[in-house]
Amino acid sequence: MNAILPAMQDAEAPAIQVTNLTMAYGDFVIMRDLDFTVNRGDVFIIMGGSGCGKSTLLRVLVGLKPPAAGKVLFREGSLWDATPDGRDAILRRSGILYQSGALFSSMTLAENISLPLSQYTSLTPKEIRELASLKLALVGLAGFEDFYPSEISGGMCKRAGLARAMALDPDILFLDEPSAGLDPVSAHLLDELILELRESLRATFVVVTHELASIFAIGNNSVFLNVETRTMSASGDPKELLAHATDPTLRRFLTRGKE
Amino acid sequence: MTKSPSGSPLADNPVRTIARAGDTLTLTLSGVWRMDRPFPDLGPVNQALAQLPAPARLVFDGAGITGWDSLFLAQCRAILTLAGARGVAVDLAGLPPGAHSLIELAQKVPERQGAARKTTSLSFLEHLGNIGLGVSQAVLNLLEFLGDVTLACVALAQGRAVFQRSQLVALIYQASVEALPIVSLISLLVGLILAFVGAIQLSQFGAQIYVSTIVGIAMIRVMGAIMTGIIMAGRTGAAYAAELGTMQVNEEIDALKTFGFSPTQFLVLPRMIALVLIMPLLCIYADLMGILGGFIVGVFMLKINPVQYLTHTWQSVPLANFWIGIVHSTIFGILVAMAGCYRGMRCGRSALGVGQATTSAVVTSILAIIIATALITVACNIIGV
After folding, report:
1. Residue from B33, B65, B109, B249 to probe the interface with A (highest A Cβ count within 10 Å)
2. Chain A residues inside the 8 Å CB shell of B37
């Protein structure tokens, strides 16, 4: 475990610093020249229209896909320059919620959450079980420990995926479309949960979404990927962007096409 | 108020002291409550709660806490549960604000009633009954599938079956051309093995030439068909089960149904047609490769004249054997396609289900091939061919 206390770390250092990032599939460039900073404690929104590369950007940030050019720097450095151990240490401090939950279907919800805990901590099985049911209770799934992913609904899978992402008390949580496929009430509760977790655990969130309600409710920093110019249009607080941004694509996005 | 436990190298290890004033129990917590520190045992808290007269209130004082993570929350929840079981009211206000609100959040949604699994042990008779019910359900499912397939075949005969011709061509290509290398290799080796085994016995009394008969009859009558059947069960039957199973997981089969397509016609029928057409051809090919294997042993090891070997094979193998081999392989084609498709269509909606479907498709196909071979052999014996 990381023994450094948050207070002892450099409070000013950004959680993630992205410089001149270009993403491509082969020769096909999806996005180029991305520059933005995710500060500690941010709820950072990656927004943009369908097919603009939001999920690809998330995959690059978490190291599933190498950048074609440019750098993604965590507090400890870049995933691609780190030693295998260093890479593991960075990834262990981040939690990821995939679009469809990506729960392991051969394991119960409790086992899904216990897996990283039993791998990376020296806790007793009883403590791991208690932690797993705590995480499930936090996402509103108390009592579902022994269910298999195929036995619960899609929205529940998503929340269980969030519980698994939180298993190791990560500093940074990456959420890919957390509210897609949820009813408005559940989506609102999820937003509340994100804000609560940020407040209580001082975690940083990087959220891919195109739900305007969520963007304005939880985001305090963002980047907008413009599918036409294949680069970012703007970065900053979404509410500020709505008030001051001039880029027509971004304005159309933030006003639901009304401008 | 705080004191480090003796013998601990870390001064800020988590410490809990329990104090009782009147009917109020105060838990004073201090230190760093994180996963990498040793947490104090819950036993003393439980004892304090059990003391008589029973305490009415449990108060947390967390002013000395300098760090915490979710294991701390889990332990607080455990204390809440202990207190709740004894009817003691708990005041969380003294905890760090973040921890307080997260615990309240976790308690907010009540545990789903009846959600937790009860593991009940079944008696032997109940167990037996469950097996019986399972078997009868499986038989019903199989009959339903067979009925669907029959209806699809009727629709095909009437020219009403809906499936993509281009897909049929692709399936035939996958089952034939792509299978040729492995069928060649295995049949050639089986022919070689048969010839070797026969050669040792036959050369003892100078009857080497009968190696050609042994290899010819064995390959053409049954081995060619069985070997292609088993290869196709492992290769194509497994692929069908995995493909249809994944389509089931992705709701693609539901999508077909809601478009008004019959999944049996659209998915199962072309696969069955492909295998029924291809298996006899593959079997003939395997027969030839097997004879080639025997030929190699006969000519190069036993020094039989090549022309003599081939003419002897031609003369000594009755043509009926060829037709028996073709019947075998046609039936195997139906069995492998049906086993693969049946398991794929009945796949559970998870990665686990796809794995199980694939495994049982291969096992079912091979079992069916062996049983069918036994039945055909007995039948041939009765009618005397």
Report:
1. B109
2. none
B119 occurs within a structural domain: no
Domains of chain A, by residue range, sit at 15-93+172-259, 105-169
A147 Cβ under 8 Å from any chain B Cβ: yes
CA distance B131 to B123: 12
Chain B contacts of A5, Cβ < 8 Å?
A: 32, 66-67
Q: What is the pLDDT along chain B (385 residues), one digit of tens a residue?
A: 334 444 445 678 888 888 888 888 888 888 888 888 888 888 888 888 888 888 888 888 888 888 888 888 888 888 888 888 888 888 888 888 888 888 888 887 777 665 556 567 788 899 999 999 999 999 999 999 999 999 999 999 998 888 888 999 999 999 999 999 999 999 999 999 999 998 988 888 888 899 999 999 999 999 999 999 999 999 999 999 999 999 998 889 988 888 888 899 999 999 999 999 999 999 999 999 999 999 999 999 989 999 999 999 999 999 999 999 999 999 999 999 999 999 999 998 888 889 999 999 999 999 999 999 999 999 999 998 7
pTM: 0.74
Nearest CB neighbour to A146, from listed B113, B116, B349? B116
Chain A, 150-209: which have a CB under 8 Å from a chain B CB? 150, 166, 169, 193, 196-197, 199-202
Q: How close does chain B come to A60, measured CA to CA in Å?
A: 26
Q: Which residues of A touch B117 (CB under 8 A)?
A: 146-147
Please give the DSSP secondary-structure letter assigned to residue A49. Answer: S
Chain A CB contacts of B98 under 8 Å are 199-202
Instruction: Give the closest of A3, A169, A202 to B70, CB-based.
Output: A169
CB–CB of B350 and A150 under 8 A?
A: yes
The DSSP element (H or E) to which A44 belongs, if any, is: strand A43-48
The contacts of residue B316 (CB under 8 Å, 6+ apart) are B210, B212, B213, B216, B217
CB contact under 8 A, A196 and B99: no
The contacts of residue A68 (CB under 8 Å, 6+ apart) are: A22, A23, A24, A29
CA pair distance B363, A117, nearest whole angstrom? 37
The whole domain housing B29 covers: 15-108
Q: In sequence order, which residues have a C-beta less than 8 Å from that of residue B322 and are 6 or more positions away? A: B220, B287
- Whether residue A105 and residue B351 make contact (CB cut-off 8 A), yes or no, is yes
Does any domain span residue B242? yes
| A140 HSE (CA, 13 A, CB side) | 14
The total domain count for chain B is 2
Residues of B with CB under 8 A from a CB of A: 32, 34-36, 39, 66-67, 69-71, 73-75, 77-78, 97-99, 101-102, 105-113, 115-117, 348-353
Sort B80 into a burial class: Cβ within 10 Å, 0-12 / 13-18 / 19+.
Answer: middle
Whether B72 contacts B31, CB under 8 Å: no
ipTM over 0.90: no
For residue B7, being part of any structural domain is answered with no
Give kind and range of the element (H or E) at residue B366. Answer: helix B351-383
- Domain A15-93+172-259 -> CATH class: alpha beta
Examine the domain organization and report whether B291 and B212 are in the same domain.
yes
